[in-house]
Amino acid sequence: MADELENAPTQENELPVEPKAEDANTPINIKVVSSTGEEVFFKIKRNTKLSKLQLAYAQKIGKDVGTIRFLYDGERIQEDDTPQSLDMEENDAIDVMVEQVGGRR
Amino acid sequence: MNEALADWDEFFATLPLLRGTDFDWMSYKPQEPAKYWNYVRKAGKDAFAMIVLVYYLVSNGADGSTEFEEKLEVIEFAIEHTRGMYERCNPPRLSAEAPGVLRHAQVERTTHTVDKQGGDGVRQANAKRGSDSRHLSWIGCSTFSEATELAAPLPLQQSEQYVTDDASFRTSMFKTRQEMKNNLYNQLTSEISLDHRRLVETILNSAEDSELSERERKYLELLSLRGVTLSSARSLLPDRWVVDGVINPFGSLISVLAARTIVILNSFFAQKLSKYGYEGVSRWSRKEIATAGGFVPGSALKLVMPISEPIERTERNKGMHWTLGVIDCKERRVEYWNSLNAVGDASAFFKVAFNYCNEHD
């Protein structure tokens, strides 16, 4: 009886934990789509800050990172966001848009 | 009350518009568009400051500190006022008596069934109704061009005619706008205390973050909390153009604070939608839209999209003017708000809006 009680919870706990442990450091493929439709693929770890990817992309296309915007599902990606914190999935796309301005009239 | 809170209490006191309003909205006369528009601007600016403040208080109270109860009162006060401000800022619908301060091109959606034997049945039905506005079917049509075709026999864009026909009105509006533009900054800042004004100016004008004092840094933190960076905030200085980095963070804040039925979308929404269709934006603000009742005709949802005009970019025109598009599910209406009469991007927005309506299942 005692053994059964001890074993039951551990078995239940192990199941959901297993895939998570795998996720933490596994790289994920992310697609960066420019406003003209060009796609660039990045492979980064789930817990790596996306700001790194942003810098790399800006460097690649030769633009200042301040003049372009990175959006995931319509939300601007913040400084500390990672694929994990945004719940990103394999082959998810990040949109890159050019800064928008408007006069105050 | 602790020192920090007293500091903010002082800040409250510097916002005269939030302590009460001298503008009587019930007796608003369309003959005074300048006064009205001016007020919206001022109220908007103060609401902006208030929103920053509310967010600051909320995020700082969450640490479980003892002053939370006290802060809560302030927060409730602030939310009440911000919401009130928002409601008052909701401009009355333009009529023949109120020629376009804002161009309010309006398209009504009707839910009739399309006559399978040819579009004429619908056209006649529309014509019989003898209505002045364009009737476009939302549910009955599969494409925008089909919807436009249905609307074609009817007199178009009546609200635009008010604007373009009245040359003297247009001239006077242009003059007023120029004056307002010149005076806006001074008007706004003179109503804020000198100290507050100096603080904001120092922050915005500083080249390096390290030049800032402790208090200024705290202020800057307020801005960065919602993702407004210093470089974006600087676009609020006179003679600069406002960037999306200011519009979007505050858009999402207002969505949270205003009634839950209003969803303010990202300013890139329209651009993305026009290029990639519904597929491109199907995941954007999904949760917020669902919470507000979903994108269903008749639901309480009001989708608001800030648009940097024009929606479709060209080499020559990379955007120069902020406008606002609205899809109102409850009223079954699409609206486009543009403070510049001359620029005609309304049709581009309607196209985008109808694509969204039609491709949405």
TrEMBL record, chain A:
<dbReference type="Pfam" id="PF11976">
    <property type="entry name" value="Rad60-SLD"/>
</dbReference>
<dbReference type="InterPro" id="IPR000626">
    <property type="entry name" value="Ubiquitin-like_dom"/>
</dbReference>
<feature type="domain" description="Ubiquitin-like">
    <location>
        <begin position="26"/>
        <end position="103"/>
    </location>
</feature>
<dbReference type="InterPro" id="IPR029071">
    <property type="entry name" value="Ubiquitin-like_domsf"/>
</dbReference>
<feature type="region of interest" description="Disordered">
    <location>
        <begin position="1"/>
        <end position="25"/>
    </location>
</feature>
<protein>
    <submittedName>
        <fullName>Small ubiquitin-like modifier</fullName>
    </submittedName>
</protein>
<dbReference type="InterPro" id="IPR022617">
    <property type="entry name" value="Rad60/SUMO-like_dom"/>
</dbReference>
Automatic annotation (TrEMBL), chain B:
<dbReference type="GO" id="GO:0005634">
    <property type="term" value="C:nucleus"/>
</dbReference>
<dbReference type="GO" id="GO:0016926">
    <property type="term" value="P:protein desumoylation"/>
</dbReference>
<dbReference type="InterPro" id="IPR003653">
    <property type="entry name" value="Peptidase_C48_C"/>
</dbReference>
<protein>
    <recommendedName>
        <fullName>Ubiquitin-like protease family profile domain-containing protein</fullName>
    </recommendedName>
</protein>
<keyword id="KW-0788">Thiol protease</keyword>
<comment type="similarity">
    <text>Belongs to the peptidase C48 family.</text>
</comment>
<keyword id="KW-0378">Hydrolase</keyword>
<keyword id="KW-0645">Protease</keyword>
<dbReference type="Pfam" id="PF02902">
    <property type="entry name" value="Peptidase_C48"/>
</dbReference>
<dbReference type="GO" id="GO:0006508">
    <property type="term" value="P:proteolysis"/>
</dbReference>
<dbReference type="InterPro" id="IPR038765">
    <property type="entry name" value="Papain-like_cys_pep_sf"/>
</dbReference>
<feature type="domain" description="Ubiquitin-like protease family profile">
    <location>
        <begin position="226"/>
        <end position="361"/>
    </location>
</feature>
<dbReference type="GO" id="GO:0016929">
    <property type="term" value="F:deSUMOylase activity"/>
</dbReference>
